[in-house]
Write a structure and sequence with these properties.
Number of domains: 1
Number of strands: 8
CATH topology: Rossmann fold
Strand content: 15-25%
Number of helices: 7
Order of helices and strands: HHHEEHEEHEHHEEE
CATH architecture: 3-Layer(aba) Sandwich
Largest sheet: 8 strands, mixed
Length: about 220
């Protein structure tokens, strides 16, 4: 029998992390908001977060629908006003060219086939759609620490942390044009003050939290 996912069995601990690390959480949200600044998200937007978890990003970003392979986190996402369904990134329950916006927040570290995941994203996005990806950048100083100690964390023990530059290359190979690169969470995340102004910068390589916005190529 497969070992249950820690996201399924330790949902409360996962969800509580965002409250205990509010400064990091607000900074990550700010980076995503910067990436979405020119993207209209309203009642008519067909938007989806893949790997929605407990809805900590979808809800404040007004992403109406989220999918996740784990049922327990989805119950909390539903409580936060997100419509949910079980599903995985490699096989999205979405018609071709149906979405205006697709959001992946740290989910790509858990996929078995990055190429297949990005090709699936390309399939479901409309020609004028937008893909926003956030990862914990392995090339950053903070990412190197996460990589070294990931086996000590039940949620990241099975993760394969990616570099922002390799994700950008994979996006281009999957039929996307990278439009924006942002980074946040510099230095030791535990030292980020909950009341501090979020620090979001262009580029990647220094910040642990890397955000990449890409559009389908050839539109």
């Amino acid at each position: 029998m497969p070992t249950p996912s820690p996201f399924e069995t330790q949902t409360a601990a996962y969800d509580d992390w965002f409250d205990a690390n509010d400064g990091v959480y607000r900074t990550e949200l700010a980076a995503l908001e910067c990436a979405l600044e020119d993207v209209a998200v309203d009642a008519d937007t067909q938007a989806l977060e893949v790997g929605v978890g407990t809805g900590r990003f979808a809800a404040p970003l007004d992403i109406p629908v989220g999918i996740d392979p784990a049922q327990s986190p989805l119950e909390r996402a539903t409580d936060r006003g997100v419509s949910t369904a079980r599903g995985v990134v490699e096989s999205l329950p979405v018609a071709d060219n149906a979405l205006n916006l697709l959001l992946f927040v740290t989910v790509l570290s858990f996929v078995d086939d990055l190429e297949a995941a990005l090709q699936e994203a390309r399939r479901v996005l409309a020609s004028d759609g937008t893909l926003v990806i956030a990862i914990l950048d392995r090339a950053s100083p903070g990412g190197q620490v996460y990589q070294e100690h990931k086996d000590e964390d039940p949620f990241y023990a099975d993760a394969e942390f990616l570099r922002a530059d390799e994700v950008c290359t994979a996006l281009e190979e999957a039929g996307f044009t990278v439009e924006q690169r942002l980074q946040a969470v510099f230095g030791d995340p535990t030292e980020i003050d909950a009341d501090a102004e979020p620090d979001v910068r262009e580029g990647h390589g220094d910040g642990l939290f890397a955000v990449i916005r890409a559009d389908p190529t050839g539109v």
